[in-house]
Structure formats: C-alpha cells, structure tokens
Amino acid sequence: MGYLGQNKNVYFFATTTDMRKDAPLRIEITPRSFKDLGLL
To answer: Which of 3, 11, 33, 34 has the fewest CB atoms within 10 Å of its CB?
Structure first.
C-alpha cells in the first residue's frame, strides 16, 4: 500500500499478491503499472 504524488495529484495504490510465492513480483508490478499509466 502506498501513494504517488505527481503534478498536484495523489494516487493511492495497493498491490495484492500471494506473499508466500509472489512477494518479489510486487517490486516489479507496481512501477510497471505506473509506467503503463504514464505516471512515471
């Protein structure tokens, strides 16, 4: 869970995965999603 502030906007997010097997994916998924949305 976290937030990204950009251009006077704040975007809140939560990346939910199975922590037993997918925890490392959270580090990749969140920034990639922001890039796909044009926020990074």
So the answer is: 3
Interatomic CA distance for residues 10 and 38, integer angstroms: 14
How would you class 16 by CB atoms within 10 Å of its CB: exposed for 0-12, middle for 13-18, buried for 19 or more? exposed
- How do residues 20-33 score in pLDDT, each as one tens digit? 888 788 888 888 99
15, burial (CB in 10 Å: exposed 0-12, middle 13-18, buried 19+): middle
Q: Exposed, middle or buried by CB within 10 Å (0-12, 13-18, 19+), for 20? A: exposed
Q: What is the pTM assigned to this prediction?
A: 0.64
